[in-house]
Design a protein that fits this description.
This protein is of the alpha+beta class. The chain has 17 helices and 16 strands. The strands form four sheets. The protein has a nine-stranded mixed beta sheet with strand order 2-6-7-10-1-11-12-13-14. Strands 5-4-15 form a three-stranded antiparallel beta sheet, with no helix packed on it. It binds adenosine-5'-diphosphate, zinc ion and magnesium ion.
Length: about 475
């Protein structure tokens, strides 16, 4: 039931997110087992990630460097010392009976991420970024139709994760969506995660509360889990904040609890209330030393930082005179931005290059269901095509045809142009001859034009273009026609 707009207007929405990002290391965080996804169950396991008694964890240096890069990108302070702790709970996919995580001494804190929110740039506070290990995966078969068989796959047990916790700074489900989009983009630029939500490498729990509009005290929150797409996050938060408002309007109180999103029913339902909340009995992990972060190590992470999306967008607008919109599109992914800059480096005019990449090339890629990195037309080849167009050798219209052929045949632009005899006719004498033929063949239209019906110039231009198989330079055609027709 949609909520009355008046009721919504009486409340402000407050949202904070807890995001888990799987790191792209080749081996797990505390052992040498592979992190590869999709292999047969339990083929990447050893005494450490199976949680066998007496096995000792060894920290993966690469996981720490990746986590640091994420923390730097989120403008966090990296603590010179952090510590791993045991988070104790029982679940079949957690054979040790505890998860090694970070608790009161996290890797990094006090950061922020800047994004569009409420029509302007806003900073969302990042409370902390910490490292932890993933649990295994349970698979349930038969549910709900028959007897259930449950299986455990421990390939994921011990895969490195970072958890990113935001301050309660988001003010709408739309802002939560935008935040997660920007966060994912940054992680992809950093190449620390593939952020594949379907495979669980990006997971998000959302905390939401409402409060009377204009007040500052936080209301009681609920936490929504099981959000495995950006759309679900937004829908679940809309459902959940409306549900809270509805209750408050009825005079009920919000119960602090964890709720699950049911995408089939498009609603959340209560899973456990805070009364049954876990007491994880955190304590320092005795098998691992505190994590001391040297300046040299921090410097190593800083040096490995790529240019991030915001900085790259800014640079593209200034260096190439692009609109904010085009620059934002072109920096959507690092691969696309690299491709675009490759076209410019290849000698193409930056604005023309932007148009050809964003409209024609992306269109062809979408049709072929390919990523930019798999483009059959290289940046250098597109640069050649754009130069042929800019130099007047072929028209833009021919350019589209040529690009389509380059895309399917892998040929160079000049080769396609030569083979098809597509060069643009810019020789005024040739165009004049064609124009005169058209005029001679259409005496009625010519007379009308000369009697003042000059709106037919477009029609005449079309006739000359047709006569030249689309190869004449259209601007020149118009100029010459105007002169010839007014004689
Ligand atoms: P908990 O102790 O329940 O884990 P935390 O204070 O650690 O809660 O916060 C977890 C997440 O919930 C953070 O992202 C935080 O910003 C968010 N959060 C905390 N309080 C609220 C609130 N009243 N409304 C919305 N989000 C909140
Ligand atoms: Zn292992
Ligand atoms: Mg907490």
């Amino acid at each position: 039931m949609p909520l009355a707009t008046e009721a919504r207007a009486n409340y402000d929405v407050v949202i904070g997110l807890e995001v888990h990002v799987q790191l792209l290391t080749r081996s797990k965080i505390f052992c040498g087992c592979s992190t590869r996804f999709g292999d047969p169950p339990n083929t990447h396991t050893c005494p450490v990630c199976l949680g066998l008694p007496g096995a000792l964890p060894m920290l993966n240096r690469e996981a720490v460097t990746m986590a640091m890069k994420a923390a730097i990108a989120l403008n966090c302070v990296i603590n010179s010392q952090s510590r791993f702790s045991r988070k104790n709970y029982f679940y079949p996919d957690l054979p040790k009976g505890y998860q090694i995580s970070q608790y009161d001494e996290p890797l990094a804190e006090h950061g922020w991420l800047e994004m569009e929110g409420g029509g302007q740039r806003k900073r969302v506070g990042i409370t902390r970024v910490h490292l932890e290990e993933d649990a295994g995966k349970s698979l349930h078969e038969g549910f709900p139709d028959s007897a259930v068989s449950s299986y455990i796959d421990l390939n994921r047990s011990g895969v490195p994760l970072i958890e990113i916790v935001t301050e309660p700074d988001l003010r709408s489900p739309g802002e939560a969506y935008e935040f997660l989009t920007r966060l994912k983009q940054i992680m992809l630029y950093l190449e620390v995660s593939d952020c594949n939500m379907e495979e669980g490498s990006l997971r998000c729990d959302a905390n939401a509360s409402v409060r009377p509009a204009g007040t500052t005290a936080l209301g009681t929150k609920t936490e929504v889990k099981n959000l495995n797409s950006f759309r679900f996050l937004q829908r679940a938060l809309t459902y959940e904040t409306d549900r809270q408002i509805e209750g408050l309007e009825r005079g009920d109180e919000v119960t602090q609890e964890t709720r699950l999103w049911d995408s089939r029913e498009q609603r959340t339902y209560g899973m456990r209330s805070k009364e049954y909340a876990h007491d994880y009995r955190y304590f320092p992990e005795p098998d691992l030393l505190p994590l001391a972060m040297s300046e040299a190590w921090k410097e190593e992470a800083r040096r490995a930082m790529p240019e991030l999306p915001d900085a790259r967008r800014e640079r593209l607008t200034h260096a190439y005179g692009l609109s904010d919109y085009d620059a934002a599109q072109l920096t959507d992914s690092r691969a696309l931005a690299d491709y675009y800059e490759g076209v410019v480096d290849g000698g193409a005019d930056p604005k023309l290059a932007a148009n050809w990449v964003l409209s024609e090339l992306l269109y062809l890629l979408k049709e072929a269901k390919r990523q930019i990195a798999e483009s059959p037309v290289s940046a250098a080849n597109l640069a050649e095509l754009v130069q042929l167009i800019a130099g007047g050798k072929i028209t833009g219209k021919m350019g589209k045809e040529v690009l389509a052929e380059m895309f399917s045949s892998l040929k160079h632009a000049t080769a396609v142009v030569a083979e098809r005899g597509l060069s643009q006719i810019s020789d005024p004498q040739k165009i004049l001859a064609a124009a005169r033929e058209v005029i001679a063949a259409n005496p009625k239209q010519t007379e009308q034009y000369r009697n003042g019906k000059t709106t037919t110039l477009g029609w005449f231009t079309g006739q000359v273009m047709k006569a030249t198989r689309g190869q004449a330079n259209p601007q020149l055609v118009q100029e010459i026609l105007k002169k010839e027709l007014s004689q």
